[in-house]
Amino acid sequence: MESDDTPMSIGSRLGNQSAERLSGENEDTAEYIQDILAEKIMGSKRVYNGRFLAVDAVDIELPNGHKVVHDVVRHPGAVAIIAFDAQGRVLIVHQYRTALERVTREIPAGKLDVGEEALECAKRELAEETGYRAGEIRYLAPIALAAGYSDEIIHLFMATDLKPGFAQPDEDEFVISEWVALDDLIEDVLDGRLEDSKTVIAILLCDAIGRRL
């Protein structure tokens, strides 16, 4: 008799087992899901080193025992800051993005330096990119930007009580800043006119927080 241990049948059994377990009440559901879906890293080879990005070819053993290779982009991590003025407007920067070949509208953001704490990076990036310094800054959430192929985590902050100053952008950084009403940005998100993912998440998250206060 032939075995039915094909990838499809094993996946189906895992899926059915998961559905049964999740349908009941269990305090360690998250740990259970981690256990049955975890992949084993068997080895890794650096195939590309860039200015601050790298790519690894990672040898993986799947939950069904099959072996595959995943390409993983390694990133030092980043921060993004949604900054509000006294009128509740949001500070938006216009910046040309080579990968998209067009100007995008985004909240201020930047990558972490080696050994830098996320909070200090957020303060630094806001000041360097826009000239504003935050009297109060609050951590909102981590964002896994592209979990399917990258380990990049963006730490999202909200800044208020802003003091103006002089911007000091990087030599290769050219931005134009403007203040935009939060309601207008929400409309832009819902109408598909704002595409930067961290900015979309920050806007909708702050709107949700505001509705709960």
Topology:
Blueprint: H1 7-23, H2 29-37, E1 40-49, E2 54-61, E3 67-74, E4 78-83, E5 89-97, E6 102-106, E7 109-111, H3 118-130, E8 133-144, E9 153-163, E10 175-181, H4 182-190, H5 197-212
Parallel strand pairs: 4-9
Antiparallel strand pairs: 1-2, 2-3, 4-7, 5-6, 5-10, 8-9
Helix pairs in contact: 4-5
Please report the first level of CATH classification, the CATH class of the largest domain. Alpha Beta
Shape: globular
Rg measurement, Å = 22 Å
Percent range for helical residues? Answer: 25-40%
Per DSSP E runs of 2 or more residues, the count of β-strands stands at 10
Main sheet makeup:
4 strands, mixed
Instruction: Please tell me the overall pLDDT.
Output: 89
Query: Please, how many helices?
Result: 5
CATH topology of the largest domain: Nucleoside Triphosphate Pyrophosphohydrolase
Task: Classify the oligomer.
Answer: single chain
CATH architecture of the largest domain: Alpha-Beta Complex
Tell me what the structure shows.
The chain is of the alpha+beta class. The chain folds into three domains: 1-37; 39-74, no CATH class; 78-212, Nucleoside Triphosphate Pyrophosphohydrolase. The protein contains five helices and ten strands; from the N terminus they run H-H-E-E-E-E-E-E-E-H-E-E-E-H-H. The strands form three sheets. Strands 7-4-9-8 form a four-stranded mixed beta sheet, with helices on both faces. It has a three-stranded antiparallel beta sheet with strand order 1-2-3, with no helix packed on it. Strand 1 (40-49) and strand 2 form a beta hairpin. It is globular, with a radius of gyration of 22 Å. Mean pLDDT is 89; it is low at 1-11.
